[in-house]
Amino acid sequence: MKALTIYQPWASLVLIGAKPYEFRKWNFIDRPGGRALLNKRIVIHAASRPVHDDEVADLLRKLAVAEQRGASQDLDHGTALKVDLARTLLTRVYAAHSHVPILPLRCGLGTAVLGRPRRPEALFGGSVADSKRFDQHVWAWPLSDVQPFDAPIPARGQQGFWDWELGQQAA
């Protein structure tokens, strides 16, 4: 099975169903072997990079704006996040992070089925940004049928898609 490493808190947002799209600047179907990943289950891996408080605060600000627009229960077209689910997790992360980080790092969190990449403009009617890495928001990769692991599985991640071996240990 292939795995995809995602920074926190976005990896956890995928696992709770708040982030149904992963944004990348490349279309995996155009890469060698990429077509074989379409509609296949992949592991969602949390990167080793620590959570940045300023990124969480930025997401919370964007979600507050979405709520003012009335998007509390829906997928916000500005962030592509499900507002209520995302806000609940991010509020906990922001409150706890300066004292004790609460999101797991450098581990597999669960699996999801990878759908056909689409341009965000086609899905949302305009540009979308769930982070400050604006160059990454070229392709929206749908993630569906998310299934969390019973417990995080430690593993060293890599860039792009990489081979997941069940129970591999972080080296």
Question: Can you walk me through this structure?
Answer:
Helices cover 25% and strands 25% of the residues. It has one domain: Archaeosine Trna-guanine Transglycosylase, Chain: A, domain 4 (Roll). Strands 2-5-4-3-1-6 form a six-stranded mixed sheet. The chain contains four helices and six strands. The model has no long low-confidence stretch (mean pLDDT 85). With 171 residues, it is α+β, with helices and mostly antiparallel strands. 32% of the residues are buried. Helix 2 packs antiparallel against helix 3. The longest helix has 16 residues.
CATH architecture: Roll
The topology string of helices and strands comes to EHEEHHEHEE
The name of the CATH superfamily reads Hypothetical protein
Low-confidence stretches: none
**What is the helix content?**
10-25%
Q: Give the count of structural domains.
A: 1
- CATH hierarchy class name: Mainly Beta
Shape: globular
Rounded to the nearest angstrom, the distance between the terminal CA atoms is: 19 Å
**Structural class by SSE content:** alpha+beta
The total strand number stands at 6
Q: Which fold name is given in CATH as the topology?
A: Archaeosine Trna-guanine Transglycosylase, Chain: A, domain 4
Please report which band the strand proportion falls in: under 5%, 5-15%, 15-25%, 25-35%, 35-45% or over 45%.
Answer: 25-35%
- Radius of gyration from CA coordinates: 15 Å
Strand order of the largest sheet: 2-5-4-3-1-6
Q: Give the helix tally.
A: 4
Summed over residues and divided by their number, the pLDDT gives a mean of: 85
Reported for the largest beta sheet, the result is:
6 strands, mixed
InterPro entries: PUA-like_sf
Protein name: ASCH domain-containing protein
Organism: Methyloceanibacter caenitepidi
